[in-house]
Amino acid sequence: MDFGIKGKHALICGASKGIGRAIAKELAGEGVKLFLCARTEQVLSETAEAIRKDCPSAEIFYQACDLSSLEDRQKLISSVNDQLGSVDILVHNTGGPKTSRAEDTKLEDWDSGFKQLFLSVADINNAFLCQMKERKWGRIICVTSLSIMEPIASLSVSNAVRSAVTAMLKTLSDEVAPFNITVNCIAPGSIETDRMQDLMEQRTKASGQSKEEYQKQYVSAIPAGRMGTPEEFAAVAAFLCSTRASYVTGSTICVDGGKRRSTY
Ligand code: NAD
């Protein structure tokens, strides 16, 4: 299937590892020119090198940026404008926030979660929406979590702030739909990445079970009987970025092997 996005320009946030990196690789394969950001320049350089290995014609720029820092975001936006010139596809993604029960979450943790997961999305959208509206084409996707539908124990900041960002993006999707700009969220269930491994270690410890016992019990709650791969997630993201997905907007798509329990 031709996704029709060859030659488009994409800014991919949180692109050095896991889900973000897999999306970058998938879009490079579609002939999209990439600008990657994450916190560490060295890891970004290795990521760009790995993508070029699989996709030698890929054009890739990158810059270190802590997405929760206003100053870093301003530098990022300026470099993207200088080097890419324009952005057609925006992929919002970053690291997971601190884990804690709601009653134990400190004010500074709510604040840093909001800066990282919400303000980064709003700020970067503001920077590139004007161009998308002028060109009457754009794709915005945001990696969220199943936690927006079913609160996950001890992930209070994720549960709350990702719900807020989903509501903000749903509102935005109404406003920009007449400009041929789609805005969608993709909610991972359990995708095998470093973040998931960290969470599994914390949960195994808390359960008092062995790693094998806990993992067996955990995947038994997923109808597919296993975790997903970053590549399976990235394939859905690439479709939503494509011209083929022009009538999908304001939606949250779960990539979760059937884990979500609600019907809708
Ligand atoms: P990951 O930790 O493997 O990768 C996160 C990426 O974001 C990395 O490139 C990291 O360098 C970058 N990053 C982290 N903090 C940043 C910051 N402040 N500024 C810029 N870049 C930053 O995570 P992942 O598993 O690929 O997940 C991606 C997102 O999806 C996370 O927010 C995670 O919480 C969420 N999520 C993942 C799963 C899953 O199953 N993996 C499930 C639900 C939600």
How would you sum up this structure, described in words?
With 264 residues, this protein is an alpha/beta fold. The chain folds into 2 domains: 9-192 and 229-255, 3-Layer(aba) Sandwich (Rossmann fold); 194-227, no CATH class. It is 48% helix and 14% strand. The protein has 8 helices and 7 strands; from the N terminus they run βαβαβαβαβαβαααβ. A 7-stranded parallel β-sheet has the order 3-2-1-4-5-6-7, with helices on both faces. The chain is globular and about 55 Å long. The structure holds nicotinamide-adenine-dinucleotide.
CATH hierarchy: architecture of the largest domain: 3-Layer(aba) Sandwich
Report the span from N to C terminus. Answer: 28 Å
Q: How many strand segments?
A: 7
Low-pLDDT stretches are none
Question: Approximately how much beta-strand content do the residues carry?
Answer: 5-15%
Approximate helicity band: 40-55%
**H/E element sequence:** EHEHEHEHEHEHHHE
Named once each, the bound ligands are: nicotinamide-adenine-dinucleotide
Largest sheet: 7 strands, parallel
What is the domain tally? 2
CATH topology of the largest domain: Rossmann fold
Helix/strand class? alpha/beta
Q: In DSSP terms, counting alpha (H) and pi (I) runs of 4 or more, how many helices?
A: 8
- How is the largest sheet built, in terms of strand order? 3-2-1-4-5-6-7
Let me know the average pLDDT: 97
Q: In one word, what is the shape?
A: globular
- Taking Cα atoms only, what radius of gyration do you get, to the nearest Å? 18 Å
Text of the CATH class of the largest domain: Alpha Beta
Write the CATH homologous superfamily of the largest domain: NAD(P)-binding Rossmann-like Domain
